[in-house]
Amino acid sequence: MAETVMEQEQQAEILNPDPVVIAFCCNWCSYTGADLAGTSRLQYPPQIRIIRVMCSGMVHPNLVIDALTKGADGVMICGCHLGDCHYIDGNYKTEKRADAIKLMLEDFGLEPERFRLEWVSASEGPKFAQVMTDMVAALKRLPPSSYKVG
Amino acid sequence: MPVKVAEEWLNICGGCEVSILDIGEPLLDLLPNLEFVHMPVLMDHKYHGQTGEGDPHKIDIPDADVGIISGGIRNEKEKQVALAMRAKCKTVVALGSCACYGGIPALANMWSLTDMCDKVYKDSKSTEKADTPKTDLPPLLDRVYALDEVIKVDLAIPGCPTSSDWIKEALLSLLSGKPFAMPDKSVCDECPTKREKKASGGTIKRPLENMAFKQDAPWEETRCFMEQGYLCLGPVTRAGCAGMSMEAGEAKVPRCIKGYMPCRGCFGPVKKGSNPLVDMMGALSSIGLKADQVSDRRAMLSRYVGGHGMLKPLPAKAPAPVKK
Q: How far apart are CA B232 and CA B301, in angstroms?
């Protein structure tokens, strides 16, 4: 039972206790960052499903929209910081595509919170844990995706 | 024995029927092998035996080997006619983008039926307010359906209007029993314009602005319209509008490109089920054009594919959480 008023409010806000989150992580920075978060024993929510890709620049908008329209509550793309891309300019493409994805969320009737682009380097284990915690917390406050089946 | 053909038009403008006539001279060679037993666009035929023969409660369509249906399904009458066609025809051909994907009429799927009727009969500034007509009219369905959402379709020829070459080819392959398939290529694969470098950058221009081309110059000297900064749906659209036969010495030029206009996407997506809106937004942002400059994205990029739930009313925005 929640003791304080504040805790009660926080509980009341949770509309989706178990959101499904897909995270596309690039092999060179973000996936290694996730690895570091793991080996450092940092806690982050278990609702994240990580998909390792070679570069965040290979995540086309149709993959993200597909995930969201087939039942995922949220999608993240994590890549190297701008200028650090293993393939020189892959993440500049990611950034442009993310703009297109953000526009399309509206076309599919999805809330802007359901998609996030984050730069996480290989040494940023704590940042990885932090952005995942933030993302899941934001999604818990939204109702389950309208595309969710069953 | 000629093959019996029944033709039916549903929610459509009639352009695809003109394409049948537009086959031209090869049609004369085809005609002895075809017997049109039912074709409301050409022949007066009553469905319910109004002239005294037949059952007034049954749609009377004669038996046929091939049924060609153009148009999507908007109302109850069209649905019943489509079902009757399916029951009477051995092979059903969906003709044109309306039958294959919903087409232009399916743009109405962006709104609910009530919203649409209110707009047409009540809210439009140029209209005197009236109730939605109800008597003596078949009731509208909740949205526009593509043909294959209601009945099984054996063969699909998209296009707005479709190309007469493909109708001829489909009829020939049906007569000879050969399989028929449209190419799985994009318009860009067939487009002869010159591509220099991918990234064009900057703003998206409207087709009204001056395009750089020289009339009647060889196509290799005309620069790709997309690279010039125009919104061309070539990358996400199925090839085939130029027809299938390559005339000697003449490049096969997609129809709109031939008229120095960017592709509108009327042949539908290259891969069945993919969404041109998503693919095109991806393509635009990947080559450095600013995707937010596409005006009216949903309607513009899903212009011909509104059936199959591709276009639907957006859910009402949830009210902002009340801060205590």
A: 10
Q: A74: domain range?
A: 18-42+50-140
In a domain, A67, yes or no: yes
Residue closest to B255 by CA, chosen among B269, B243, B246, B238:
B243
- Using an 8 Å Cβ cutoff, are B49 and B60 in contact? yes
pTM score, whole prediction: 0.86
Give the three-class secondary structure for B238: strand
Lowest mean pLDDT among A19-33, A46-60, B40-54, B145-159: B40-54
Interface probe, candidates A108, A111, A145, A146, chain B, greatest B C-beta count within 10 A: A108
Residue B274 one-letter amino acid: S
Residue B97: both structure tokens together: 């983008």
**How many angstroms away from the CA of A15 is the closest CA of chain B?**
12
Torsion, Cα of B76, B311, B314, B300 (10° steps): -130
- Degrees, nearest 5: CA angle B212-B235-B105: 100
Beta strands in chain A (DSSP E): 21-26, 48-53, 74-79, 115-119
Residue stretches of chain B with pLDDT short of 50:
248
Provide the 10 A C-beta neighbour count for residue A93.
Answer: 22
Burial of B44 (0-12, 13-18, 19+ CB in 10 A): exposed
Give pLDDT tens digits for B246-289.
Answer: 554 556 889 999 899 999 999 999 988 889 999 999 998 888 88
Establish if A5 belongs to a structural domain: no
Asked if the structure places residue B301 within a domain, the reply is yes
Overall domain count for chain B: 2
Residues B142 and B7 both lie in one domain: yes
With CB atoms and an 8 Å threshold, state whether A100 touches B282: yes
B104 and B215 in a single domain? The answer is no
> Looking at beta carbons, which residues of chain B come within 8 Å of A146?
315
End-to-end Cα distance, chain A: 30
Q: Considering only the beta carbons, identify the residue of A13, A62, A109 that sits closest to B282.
A: A62
Which of A81, A89, A44 has the alpha carbon at shortest distance from B199?
A89
Q: How far apart are CA B168 and CA B165, in angstroms?
A: 5
Q: Which of A113, A120, A119 is nearest to A19 (CA)?
A: A113
The angle formed by the CA atoms of residues B4, B6 and B8, to the nearest 5 degrees, is: 170
* B298 at interface of A, judged by CB pairs closer than 8 A: yes
Establish if A2 belongs to a structural domain. Answer: no
pLDDT recorded at residue B220: 85
At residue A34's C-alpha, the angle toward residues A28 and A40, to 5°, is 125
Which chain A residues are closer than 8 Å to B202 by Cβ? none
Q: Chain B residues with CB inside 8 Å of A147's CB? A: none
